[in-house]
Amino acid sequence: MSKKDYYEILGVSRDAKSEELRKAHRKLVRKLHPDVNKEPDAAERFSEVQEAYDVLSDDEKRAQYDQYGSTGFGGSARPGGGGQGPSGAWSDVDPETFESVFGDFFRTQGGASGGAGFGGFGGHGSSGRGHAQPRPRRGSDLEHQLSITFLVAARGGTESIRVSTQEGTSEQIEVRIPAGIKNGATLRVRGKGSSGRHGGASGDILFKIRVQPHPWFRRDGLDLIMDVPITISEAALGVTLQLPLLTGSVSLRVPPGTGSGKKLRASGKGITDQGGASGDFLAVLSVVAPSQLSEDDARHLEELGSRLPDPRADLPWTDMIGSD
């Protein structure tokens, strides 16, 4: 058998320290292990790496190799090692190296194909040829958008939704909508996502909530807001308004002399969330001038206007305009 240059196989210098040998070995194990590398010569190259590291990582063997070369080991660094191929290769990798190099891969893949490669490592610390069971893997979460009405978002309710799974099936599920949920919130329905593997739990479904606009309500937190138009006579003389709520209605008094932008508040009549907290109902008033007037109405308004005080008289910029 021809001599093998173990230093060349590991890609290190002849004065390489233990840590340098260890890093080189782990890098090559990750690259060449036959459970990962499917090239025809992967198993043979892996065996050479194992043989080289077995010798150079042992001070006594390394000294013997430096003096006599690889022929001093009969062409094989360990009995039965290296030449086993994928089925027994994991038993030739020490536990620390296995965990460092393949720990993440093993956890995410749940074991190698065929069950003999990765599982063969499970015997370390016991018989050396046991089979580790694949770790349970939780199923992945699925994401869906769920559009609901303004009233359902405010008052709560239940939506019946048919969702598609990653397995290609569909399922009808009931989604409970908590009162007061906001636009953009996420609802989690547990156990309705992708199925787990190797006994792992199923994932969840995450519903991104989209609240449809309401024709006359809007909200600010838990406050319920409505724009309410009033006439100029109602604004001037005052009026009592009967306004709708989410449930029922409320009476609010518009005081005489009210202008646009005035807010009338009904405490505790807004949205109540699932925790029992309630917002207020606010009516935002807007004075609407008539777009068409009869000649008599126009004359009466002009006469009234001539007797009313100028609302801009005390503003500082009126003097500036008057001085031009």
**Taking all residues together, what is the mean pLDDT?**
80
Give the C-level CATH assignment of the largest domain.
Mainly Alpha
CATH homologous superfamily title of the largest domain: DnaJ domain
What shape does the CA trace take?
elongated
The major sheet is characterized as: 4 strands, mixed
Strand order of the largest sheet: 6-7-11-10
Label the structural class: alpha+beta
Poorly predicted runs are: 74-91, 110-130
Please name the CATH topology of the largest domain.
Answer: Helix Hairpins
State the total count of DSSP E strands: 11
The appropriate CATH architecture of the largest domain is: Orthogonal Bundle
Tally of discrete structural domains: 3
Percentage of residues in DSSP E strands: 15-25%
Number of helices: 10
The radius of gyration over CA amounts to 40 Å
Cα-to-Cα separation, first versus last residue: 113 Å
What portion of residues is helical? Answer: 25-40%
**SSE run:** HHHHHHEHEEEEEEHEEEEHH
Any overview of this molecule?
With 324 residues, the chain is an alpha+beta fold. The protein folds into 3 domains: 6-123, Helix Hairpins (Orthogonal Bundle); 142-211, Urease metallochaperone UreE, N-terminal domain (HSP40/DNAj peptide-binding domain); 217-307, Urease metallochaperone UreE, N-terminal domain (HSP40/DNAj peptide-binding domain, Sandwich), CATH 2.60.260. 29% of the residues lie in helices and 22% in strands. It has 10 helices and 11 strands. A 4-stranded mixed beta sheet has the order 6-7-11-10. A hairpin with a 5-residue loop joins strand 2 (157-164) and strand 3. The longest helix is centred in the N-terminal third of the chain and has 15 residues, at 18-32. Mean pLDDT is 80; it is low at 74-91 and 110-130.
